[in-house]
Amino acid sequence: MKVIIENQEILLKELQNFKKDLDIVKIEENHWHILYQNQSFTIKLIAKNLEEKTAEWKINGKSVIAKYQSELDVLLQSMGLSSQNQKKVRELKSPMPGLIKKVHVKVGDEIKKGEPLLVLEAMKMENILKAPVDVKVSQIKVVEGNTVEKNQILVVFE
């Protein structure tokens, strides 16, 4: 399995090949303590998006968004047949409740994948919400200072 964390690819070995180096203790559902090469990690799964193949993790108290690809995804991408290239995104929804701190775009802007759209403050942390693909902004449904709920539509794309 191939995992991409903050634009860095990490290739994971099959679990049976590298579990000898891991000591994993399940604390509760979606929450583990891991010892790996004499280092201690507390890892908790916060949220996952099966459609976008992303997961938000809290690792030793730090939030990390990981994008993962199956072996089939890697094969299709190597052949130039990535299903992500064909995906049409119509809107950006809030991944969690929070406060809109900054709006980086305006209607009509053409935004490249990965460029910032908004800053959402949640649980005392600022989260930069970025464009999932190349898009053109057609509507902005929030302004700075708005509080939003999880899955609330924030930006609509053409």
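(the above was protein one; protein two follows)
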Amino acid sequence: MNEVFKWEFTDWGPNYISFSGANIDGGFNGEGDAQVSNGGVLVVIYANDLNQTLECVVKAGGEISKPIFDFPGGKRFHFCDPNGNELAVWSE
């Protein structure tokens, strides 16, 4: 998703990737055979332009799981990245 959110990624081998540039640094551990399942933590990312970000997500290979909808605090949409992780993007 670096082309969507302008994050920088560093591969640390076959099972770990870190990211920066999101006003917070973090990483993803791909070890083990755990399957992605609903009911886990939903990471919600802020965007200035929700419609443009939705278009970028689709162009980058994301699959929209919930189109833009109103919620307390603004609007958001949910998507699954190419690895099957569900994320959300919101805007005021």
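Reviewer note on protein two: The mean pLDDT is 83.
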